[in-house]
Specification:
The protein is an alpha/beta fold. The chain is 37% helix and 16% strand. 55% of the residues are buried.
């Protein structure tokens, strides 16, 4: 029985979460989390009961991406914790703030051969910034405060706290520690001048903006820099939307495995400025293959030395402040497009406007699906992509209306994020619609969370591109290698079983109307779309388009 001065370890942990502003925990409970669940239930924190721990971690990851605050996920010991790992690793590699909490057996069972007992601290260590077992209830406030700090410090990431059931039940009088804000330092003056000097010597500089720009709310700073200097901007998958497709400074998106229009510009560049670029988004050496242009870096954290990049100048600190300072140091210098930049922009613009689907019914070329999505997309909507062949097309061809509107898992690139992630996004959505785009392989990784979405009464749309196989894997296997076709469920019965509305797209002719109708639906909608990647040359890229069957849009 607790007194007014004491509380259980579980209650202490919940109080720490409340102090830190945590308002939601996604998870699946177990026997070893009984005390923690009682404390959560007694608090104002929302607990979202999920159908699989992986889905819970994906939800927490998307919650963290959209709010900038750590998403929290919970599992019990053993298989619950192992299920959690994939989503935690996703947050770690995409630099998303996340706190994973796992239950554990009592301290007397730790280190012994015992039912469901594995070393959870060791299990999570490779996929987190910190993995710690809470061995004493009095240590909970300090450990949680450090978990919050680490999850958001530098490049954000995941942390893991393991709570043994006897520690959760034991009493403590430890006081909650306040969460200290993380100040953002400014880059050094000499470093900023070095970047300005490199740009001043260049005739064809290019800026590549990465996820760190969106993560640090610096999108407007990048746009202002581009418009002031005339330097063109390409983005990674995760930074799309910083410049709209019609912007005169856009070079669209880098990161395709096939040569694309933007590669023409990169090959012609004589200085490359990486801003908020995470090496996990795309191997930097592959991005700049064949180029001898000096590379400059602006980021909130020092770039790793093992990327292989030779960096001519770097400025580590607040991105917006750094770009503003460099702009001033350029003393009004501006750049105009060279032939390669113009060709890249015009080539990609033509690509986005082309129609490759010949019939109003039947399978649709992926670029045509993307064009319909772009036309239907409103600034207030949120869009998520799963992983597979469809992700490459979405990341290249769908054009967001704002930065952060499109979530593309790209570090770990684990299948199954989009559907549960849509749940997390819909919970935060004040207006507009959430659209998750999945392949038929991707969606089945998390299909059980359709029940969770129904139970929570959420409005969202899941669009499934149906081709009956693992298209990206088949493409890599080649014609001589094995392919991996599979059967799909009866989508209408599946949707009905979960209480969803189902709309089966018959072809390009009815896709716009059905997508528009799903935006206005009250509950969740499953939209199935037949796709034929061969109509567009399978993989997106400048060369593969030549094998398609283009006609005027």
């Amino acid at each position: 029985m607790t007194t007014s001065k004491t509380k259980t370890g579980a209650q202490c942990l919940v109080d720490c979460m409340i102090e830190a502003g945590i308002d939601t925990v996604f998870g699946v409970p177990g026997e070893e989390t009984t005390d923690l669940m009682e404390a959560l239930t007694a608090s104002d924190i929302d607990f979202v009961l999920c159908r699989n721990e992986q889905g819970a971690a994906f939800m927490a990851s998307v919650h963290g991406r959209l709010t900038g605050q750590p998403g929290v996920c919970l599992s019990t010991l053993g298989p619950g914790a192992t299920n959690l790992v994939t989503g935690v690793a996703d947050a770690q590699l995409d630099h998303v703030p996340l706190i994973a909490i796992t239950g554990q057996g009592g301290r007397d069972r730790m280190g012994r051969l015992s039912h469901q007992m594995i070393d959870l601290e060791a299990l999570f260590a490779p996929v987190t910034k910190m993995s710690r077992t809470l061995l004493m209830p009095g240590d909970i406030p300090a450990s949680f405060a450090e978990a919050m700090r680490l999850s958001m410090a530098g490049r954000p990431g995941a942390v893991h706290l393991c709570l043994p059931e006897d520690v959760a039940a034991e009493e403590t009088d430890a006081a909650v520690l306040p969460v200290r804000p993380q100040p953002q330092s400014h880059a050094g003056q000499d470093d900023l001048q070095a970047i300005a000097d490199q740009l001043s010597q260049a005739k064809r500089p290019v800026l590549i903006a990465g996820a760190g720009v969106v993560r640090n709310a610096a999108s407007q700073s990048v746009r202002h820099f581009a418009e002031t200097t005339g330097i063109p901007v390409a983005t990674t998958f995760m930074a799309k939307g910083i410049l709209p497709a019609e912007h005169p400074n856009t070079l669209f998106t880098v990161g395709q495995s096939e040569e694309d229009w933007v590669d023409l510009a990169l090959q012609a560049a004589d200085c490359v400025l990486l801003v908020g670029f995470d090496a996990v988004e795309y191997p930097p050496l592959s991005l700049l293959t064949g180029g001898t242009a000096p590379v400059c870096v602006v980021d909130t954290d020092a770039p790793r030395a093992d990327t292989g990049l030779v960096i001519a100048a770097e400025a580590v600190g607040d991105i917006g402040h750094a770009l503003s300072d460099v702009t001033d140091r350029l003393n009004g210098a501006t750049w105009t497009d060279g032939p390669a930049f113009t060709a890249a922009r015009e080539g990609m613009t033509r690509t986005l406007e082309r129609t490759l689907t010949d019939s109003a019914t039947g399978p649709i070329a992926p670029n045509d699906i993307c064009r319909v999505i772009t036309k239907a997309l409103r600034p207030e909507d949120t869009l998520l992509s799963g992983v597979g062949m469809h992700k490459l097309w979405v990341a290249r061809n769908v054009q967001p209306k704002r930065a952060g509107q499109l979530i593309v898992p790209n570090g770990l690139a684990g299948m199954g994020l989009a559907l549960p992630g849509a749940l997390a996004a819909a919970r935060l959505q004040d207006k507009g619609r959430v659209l998750a785009i999945c392949g038929d392989g991707d969606v089945m990784m998390s299909v059980q969370e359709m029940e969770t979405i129904t139970r929570l009464g959420l409005r969202l749309t899941v669009m499934v591109w149906v081709d009956g196989g693992l298209g990206l894997i088949d493409e890599h296997q080649g014609e001589a290698g094995p392919n991996f076709p599979f059967g799909n469920p009866d989508w209408d019965r599946l949707a009905t079983a979960f209480g969803w509305t189902h709309a089966a797209v018959q072809g390009l002719g009815d896709l716009p109307d059905l997508l528009h109708a799903s935006h206005g639906a009250e509950g969740p909608t499953l939209l199935t779309v037949p796709v034929d990647y061969a109509l567009a040359g399978q993989m997106p890229g400048r060369q593969s388009e030549k094998s398609g069957n283009p006609r005027a849009a």
